[in-house]
Amino acid sequence: ASYKVGYFVGSLSSTSINRELSKALIRLAPDDLEFTEIPIRDLPLYSPDYDTNYPPEGLALKEAISRSQAILFVTPEYNRSIPGALKNAIDWASRPWGRNSFDHVPVAVVGASIGDIRTALSQQSLRAVLSFCNTRQMTSPEAYIKFTPDLFPGNGEVTDKTTEDFLATYMQEFRDHIVRVLTVLPR
Ligand code: FNR
């Protein structure tokens, strides 16, 4: 069997270091995880006025999550919290009330920063939101990545063996978490 993992990159930057991190994570993940990016760029800003008539972008987002057996969040930190574009996507997915797409979904959170805080506060904010959204979070291991162009030269490559092994272990642990959750809560 293989597992369908949808992933969010919480950045709209054309030079996103978190997109680069996502490439490394996908390359290092166990072979039985299949990854599909869930785009957030074209979503309008969420309003409850859309609840009775979701636009195609909102419907596509909810359908992409329902097709996924697990979700990976790879996100930067903006002003010590979640980037607005990612929070907006989560708000879309959580509605209309009673049709929260994240209910019981196995998830993991990871992020890269150029600063020493390494997205710790962004990840903590995101975990609080995902907790309310009733996801099944992998709480350990955590991964706070300090990005340098030397460490991630491109195409998912990682030049430091210790970092590469750590990211591979993180993805193996995510796989094990997915299997454990789906055993009790199949989707
Ligand atoms: C940042 N950055 C940043 N970094 C950090 O470690 N903590 C923070 O709170 C912030 N705040 C912040 C706000 C805004 C509006 C921007 C544009 C940037 C720097 C951030 O780590 C850096 O820009 C990364 O390159 C962002 O990740 P992506 O977009 O390249 O994936």
From TrEMBL:
<dbReference type="InterPro" id="IPR005025">
    <property type="entry name" value="FMN_Rdtase-like_dom"/>
</dbReference>
<protein>
    <submittedName>
        <fullName>NAD(P)H-dependent oxidoreductase</fullName>
    </submittedName>
</protein>
<dbReference type="Pfam" id="PF03358">
    <property type="entry name" value="FMN_red"/>
</dbReference>
<feature type="domain" description="NADPH-dependent FMN reductase-like">
    <location>
        <begin position="4"/>
        <end position="146"/>
    </location>
</feature>
<dbReference type="InterPro" id="IPR050712">
    <property type="entry name" value="NAD(P)H-dep_reductase"/>
</dbReference>
<dbReference type="InterPro" id="IPR029039">
    <property type="entry name" value="Flavoprotein-like_sf"/>
</dbReference>
